[in-house]
Design a protein that fits this description.
The complex is a heterodimer of chains A (591) and B (748). Chain A is an alpha+beta fold. Chain A has 21 helices and 10 strands. Chain B is of the alpha+beta class. Chain B is globular, with a radius of gyration of 28 Å.
Chain lengths: 591, 748
């Protein structure tokens, strides 16, 4: 923990409260007078989002909470100064994430890299994660990961529970786990637990509660009322969702009685597999998330082996109800069972932190990905799956081996720093390698071209550098008045032409390559119009508008001088196609 | 031996970084025109410089930087670089600016931490020669922002002409620009063609010379020859970094016992605007500031026996004082008004009682030489330009040609004008107000020195229209005083900065300055305001809100209530806040600073509401909150001596304006200032409406004569805009129209 005690006088608490509220006032006041209605709606949303993230960041930050002041000023500046649109939203999200990260970083450092000597499973872990840190951190993360909940007008009780109660309970559970396992492992466990949902939903929160309950049962100093309550909490998930709850309860039990838990895990896994799964391949694919997210569990502590086996069994067989968050308990259990040595904990911390960061960015406005973790992981160049799990585990073990070797002569802080740098460098290299090849954008960002019955064609000369060896085309677009179109209806033709007029063409189809911009507007949703997954969303008044991305990889590289987009001849007269970007890529690797 | 090994290591690191930068410049997967290409290419060099500054700082007794924070900085940097590389595929408007701001913030965090870590190097008493790290750290920052800034802003104002002279000196070894204009040599440093300026002298054989002095171009020419435009700009960055370092040198003469406060003042001078904005531009004010600071340092050494060493007049003095005094007029003739006072200060300090008496004869010789240089320049100008003052007249520089209001408006504008003033570009400099009061109360000699140095210069510069921008970044004409202004803050910072009010001020003003600095650096062109009473930043805000926000900020071009209210209010409020007595209750450390940030944010919250509610008294019709269906600005933005014209909007037949109005009563009397432009012999009518309701019609007869059209008093319905609609016959050819200057609204 930070050596300097956090001052919690009334004045400091008041200022932690007042500063984000002043930022809220500045942004809301701006939104209230903004001439562009869409911009005003977005400003108002960003104001609420910023306040929801800055308030917990303020209470998380060690005093004097300078990052709160800077973060509030920067978020306000971004809202006031940047042009409305998804770019501004991304900038505000980045400011909020950075503010929370700095506050968390300052609250959690300086700390010894790992407890030394390693605590026993029956003893106290040494460094704590007090609720004063864990709860604000959880609240801040929840605001960023589930920012979509703040879009609804007025705060419904359900949204309030999701935004406040669940993360608060989850944070308290992580804090309890830290008492025995140390803050680092508790943070990693909490991190992997909320990655899949993303954020604190009922499944991930109950998973952490079950683990904390199991952990509390192992406390020698806990009295019987506490243990009785813990027992109830351990079983509570079963009442909520039997399949997921059994897995959570078994995982929680593993922190108290690992061998009994393992004994129970085998029949539980068999039962769950029999009841919920159709094929062993599906079980294997599901279990792959364990080495993917917690590669450190591949070589657990001696006393954690049983727990990791139980976690693996549960990870493979737990029914994904209500979603991937059902995996939270096995993932967190595996994280708590890993070795505490820096060789393992540091790379795992970097990996979990990077995954959390990527997930938060992609879950937030304007990306709003439904599966942000999978999208974030796929930025590394491979889709999440066995191949990626093998690559991650292999690299992790190599790093751990290197870290262990470093432990023979290097000082602990230096070893941790270098290991963290190496892990981060590897991640950065993988991300760099995963970037799409060089591309040429044919439109300026934020200035779409609209094709309608009056203006059915747009064409652009392809700049000289991109003329030869075109490997792919990316088109970002959306439709107006296109909600009623049957999926697969051609709406536009994208043609590549060389200087002689020859070339090739691709069809842009509704429901596959593009879709209605107002697909999330209540009346369109009620009409049941299908739309592909959006690429970017933005606030258009009281709903989220969206645009879509079509990517075509050319069978063989082509040469072209002109790209032309034509409205499909048979398209309905009132249909308009907004083309936001057309990108020509010279290489075949399309992301 | 250790020192040599350290230097070798530094050289090796920097060489490796330079090589990496060169390789990146060739291999970066970004188009040549990408705005981040230069920044990413120079990144290894900046990282290497910062690493070495940290290493040498720690080695020289500075505090080492925390590994966790460094890791955080590096992590953020890596993430930002990845986003920079990925952004062509994301296609988000405004992302470039946001990423640039992100990179700047990472740099800012590093610089703030490094500055604090260097504090022990100053010891308990400012050293005679501050560490070179106080030069290298600003230099690293200036070099880091250079590629982005130059990519986003073409040379402007005097810059291209100075660069063209530099080009001619570097390649032709002469100052004749005729061939350079003919060959379009401006292409080497900008995209926009330039032509000879009015007043440029011509030779008997068709030579074209620049009216700008050749001394600065001469200094830039070697680097320009080696590195082109970037080489010249890097030299400017080098000079600016020396100015920053000299600030610390000067501080030891005034406040040697305040090293911490001097460090803060140094950081403010080096890393805040305006000096930072000048680091990547070609302005004579930077070398002038350098020469002035160097001369002052030598002058103060004359009058003191620092470190027990008696200072005498020798080669150091000739070089340190004589050279700057003689070079200043050669940089720009108006700096003779700095050279003269420097000699006076030299005379004064050479004979300070109780100090070893210094020989004054060299000063007399210098005065003679300066008079010779000045006279020589006047004669030369008379021969070449047929005017001893080049393009200026004696009347322009005659102090009696201007009334007191011109001096008042000019002087307050230098500091308060939202477009060109010091406080508008970096509000943290508002601390100068209590600082000057404190110096006055203490009868500090710094105030006297500042007055002696700058008063003659100010008397000539302040009342003239020239200082209103001159297509330069803010505070150009007093940039030479920045080091002294910085030092002036040190006593104030030492006097009660722990008080709640002072901390609130520091926190609030620092947050505001940080936000503005990000804007100025990310959009460098926004510091080039035109002398039309508007600013890019406030225009953008007014346009976004559709409200007149600018009226709440001072402008000396458009004098209004704010022009006078801000100086009075800020002087009293800032001073009172600074010395606000402390209560007895204990408060948490830093609480007041956070409260200051909250107060600034709360004040920002009030601004849009105030713009919507405070009654409209004047509508400047060319402003962005006025919606126009057509027409154009008048006069053109680039017109010379813009302040001599009324700014207006030309409205032609069948065009209309719609201005938001915040009512201040039920009835209003309108006064429209307008001028008819008749291009056709047909009638022209301008309707004045409250929304759709016609209030009056103006059918002017006299052409090109400013008229005041009075309407009312009439009833005004809240929420209705003022509409001006032009109509009339529109035969083929140019249409009739009117220049609409402003509407004054008198509420009843």
């Amino acid at each position: 923990m930070n050596d300097q005690p956090v001052q919690t006088s009334f004045r400091s608490d008041l200022l932690r409260l007042l500063t984000p509220l002043a930022a809220l006032a500045a942004m809301v006041s701006f939104a209230g007078r903004e001439a562009d209605p869409a911009g005003a709606a977005e400003s108002a949303y960003l104001a609420v989002l910023a306040t929801a993230a800055l308030l917990p960041a303020g209470f998380l930050a060690p005093w004097p909470a300078f990052e709160l002041g800077v973060g509030s000023a920067l978020a306000t500046t971004a809202v006031w100064a940047l042009p409305p649109g998804p770019g501004r939203g991304a900038a505000v999200m980045a400011v909020l994430l950075a503010t929370l990260a700095v506050a968390a970083g300052r609250a959690l450092t300086p700390r010894p890299p790992l407890p030394s000597p390693p605590p026993s499973l029956t003893g106290r872990g040494g460094d704590d994660l007090p609720p004063g840190i864990a709860v604000p951190l959880a609240l801040g993360l929840q605001a960023l990961l589930r920012g979509d909940l703040l879009l609804a007008p007025g705060l419904s009780p359900r949204a309030a529970v999701a935004l406040v109660a669940l993360p608060a309970v989850g944070g308290l559970a992580a804090s309890m786990l830290a008492r025995r396992h140390g803050a680092a492992l508790a943070l990693i466990a909490g991190g992997v637990a909320i990655l899949l949902a993303p954020g604190f939903n009922v499944a991930s929160t109950l998973a952490l509660v079950a683990l904390a309950a199991g952990d509390l049962l192992a406390w020698e100093e806990a009295g019987w009322p506490a243990k009785a309550a813990a027992g109830i909490a351990l079983l509570a998930p079963i009442a909520w969702e039997p399949g997921t709850g059994i897995a959570a309860a078994v995982c929680g039990l593993a922190l108290w009685r690992p061998r009994i838990a393992l004994g129970l895990a085998v029949p539980a896994a068999a039962g769950l597999a029999w009841f919920h799964h159709e094929s062993p391949a599906g079980i294997g694919l599901q279990a792959v998330w364990l080495p993917l997210l917690v590669p450190a569990a591949a070589l657990p502590r001696r006393e954690g082996i049983a727990a990791v086996i139980a976690a693996a069994l549960m990870a493979g067989t737990v029914p994904l109800t209500p979603g991937a968050a059902a995996l939270a308990a096995p993932m967190a259990l595996a994280a708590l069972s890993m070795r505490r040595d820096a060789a393992f904990a540091v790379p795992q911390g970097v990996w979990t932190g990077a995954a959390a960061l990527g997930t938060a960015l992609l879950a937030g406005y304007p990306w709003l990905r439904e599966e942000p973790l999978a999208t974030a992981l796929s930025l590394l160049g491979l889709p999440p799956g066995p191949a990626m799990a093998a690559a991650v585990a292999g690299l992790f073990l190599a790093l751990a081996a290197f870290g262990t070797w470093m432990g023979r002569g290097w000082g602990e802080p230096l070893r941790s720093t270098r290991l963290a740098g190496l892990a981060a460098g590897l991640l950065a290299t993988a991300l760099l390698a995963g970037l799409p090849g060089a591309g040429t954008a044919l439109l300026a960002p934020g200035v779409p071209v609209v094709l309608d019955a009056g203006h059915p064609v747009w064409e652009s000369r392809i700049p000289g550098a991109a003329v030869g060896g075109i490997g792919g085309i990316v088109v970002e677009s959306s439709l107006s008045n296109g909600a009623g179109l049957a999926p697969g209806t051609p709406v536009a033709v994208v043609r590549l032409r060389d200087s002689t007029g020859h070339g090739s063409e691709r069809i842009l189809r509704a429901g596959q390559d593009t879709g209605e911009w107002a697909a999330r507007r209540p009346d369109v949703v009620r009409a049941g119009a299908p739309a592909p997954r959006p690429w970017i969303s933005w606030i258009a008044g009281d709903f989220l508008a969206q645009r879509y991305r079509a990517r075509w990889t050319l069978a063989r590289p082509e040469r072209a001088a002109v790209l032309r987009v034509e409205r499909a001849p048979g398209a309905p007269p009132d249909l308009a196609i907004a083309v936001y970007q057309v990108e020509i890529r010279q290489v075949e690797i399309l992301k | 031996m250790r020192l040599r090994a350290g230097l070798v290591e530094t050289a090796a690191v920097l060489a490796a970084c330079a090589a990496a930068a060169a390789i990146l410049a060739w291999t970066l997967p970004l188009p040549a025109a990408d705005p981040f290409r230069g920044t990413l290419a120079v990144l290894p060099l900046i990282l290497g410089l910062l690493r070495e500054i940290h290493r040498w700082g720690a080695r020289s007794g500075g505090r080492p930087l925390g590994a966790a924070a460094t890791a955080g900085e590096l992590g953020a940097l890596v993430l930002l670089v990845l986003l920079v590389l990925a952004r062509p595929h994301l296609s988000l408007a405004g992302m470039d600016e946001a990423l640039a701001a992100g990179l700047l913030l990472v740099l800012g965090v590093r610089v703030a931490r490094q500055t604090l870590a260097l504090r022990p190097l100053l010891g308990d008493r400012l050293p005679r020669r501050p560490s070179a790290l106080f030069f290298l750290l600003p230099l690293a920052v200036y070099l880091a922002i250079l590629p982005w800034s130059t990519r986003h802003r073409q040379p402007d104002g005097d810059e291209p002409f100075n660069l063209l002279v530099t080009h001619s000196l570097a390649y032709d070894f002469d100052a004749d620009l005729a061939n350079n204009y003919a060959h379009g040599d401006w292409r080497h440093f900008m995209d926009r063609p330039i032509e000879p300026q009015p007043g440029d002298p011509a030779g008997p054989h068709g030579e074209r010379y620049s009216r700008h002095n050749a001394l600065l171009p001469l200094a830039l020419a070697p680097a320009y020859r080696l590195g082109g435009k970037l080489g010249a700009l890097a030299t400017m960055a080098l000079m600016t970094a020396v100015v920053a370092w000299l600030t610390l040198r000067l501080a030891r003469h005034y406040v040697p016992e305040l090293p911490g406060e001097s460090l803060a003042a140094w950081a403010l001078v080096a890393f805040a605007s305006p000096l930072l904005l000048y680091s990547y531009q070609v302005w004579v004010e930077v070398p002038a500031a350098l020469l002035t600071a160097a001369a002052l340092d030598r002058i103060f050494s004359l009058g003191s026996a620092l470190d027990g060493r008696r200072q005498g007049w020798g080669l150091k003095e000739w070089l340190g004082l004589g050279l700057p005094v003689l070079l200043l007029p050669l940089v720009k003739i108006r700096f003779v008004l700095i050279s003269g006072p420097l000699l006076v200060l030299g005379w004064w300090h050479a004979g300070i009682p109780c100090q070893p008496r210094q020989p004054r004869r060299p000063l007399l010789i210098l005065a003679g030489l300066l008079a010779g240089v000045a006279a020589g320049m006047l004669v030369y100008n008379q021969i070449v330009y047929s005017n001893p003052l080049k393009i200026h007249s004696w009347q322009e520089v005659d102090p009696y040609s201007y009334g007191p209001s011109s001096y008042l408006l000019g002087f307050s504008g230098l500091f308060f004008d939202a477009a060109f003033g010091l406080f508008g570009c970096a509000p943290v400099w508002l601390l100068l107000l209590p600082a000057v009061l404190l110096l006055a109360v203490r009868r500090d000699r710094l105030l006297l020195d500042m007055a002696i140095l700058s008063l003659p210069y100010l008397v000539i510069v302040v009342p003239r229209l020239e200082w209103y921008g001159g297509w330069s970044p803010p505070f150009r004409y007093l940039l030479i005083a920045m080091p002294l202004l910085g030092v002036a803050l040190a006593p104030l910072l030492a006097s009660g900065r722990g008080r709640a009010g002072a901390q609130a001020l520091l926190g609030g003003l620092a947050a505001l300055t940080l936000a503005l600095m990000l804007v100025w650096l990310v959009v460098p062109g926004w510091t080039y305001d035109f002398a039309d009473g508007r600013t890019y930043a406030l225009d953008a805000l007014s346009g976004r809100l559709g409200l007149d926000v600018a009226r709440f900020f001072p402008s000396s071009v458009r004098p209004r209530t704010a022009t006078w209210a801000w100086p009075l209010l800020s002087l009293s409020i800032v001073s009172l806040l600074w010395w606000l007595p402390e209560g007895k209750s204990r408060r948490p450390r830093g609480a007041a600073a956070l409260a200051g940030v909250a107060l600034v944010l709360a004040a920002a919250a009030l601004l849009p509401s105030a713009a919507a509610r405070v009654p409209t008294r004047v509508i400047e019709l060319e402003d962005p909150q006025v919606r126009k269906s057509g027409g154009h600005l008048h006069p053109d933005r680039w017109v010379i001596e813009r302040t001599r014209y009324r700014g207006g909007w030309v409205l032609r037949v069948d065009e209309r304006l719609e201005a938001p109005v915040a009512p201040g009563g039920r009835r209003v009397k309108l006064r429209l200032m307008a001028e008819l432009i008749r291009n056709q012999p047909v009638p022209f009518t301008l309707d004045i409406r409250e929304g759709d309701r016609l209030l009056a019609s103006w059918t002017p007869v006299r052409e090109r004569v400013w008229e005041t059209v009075e309407v009312g008093p009439v009833d005004w319905k809240a929420g209705e805009p003022l509409v001006l609609a032009a109509h009339g016959p529109s035969p083929p050819g140019a249409l009739n129209g009117a220049i609409l200057d402003r509407v004054e609204m008198e509420w009843r």
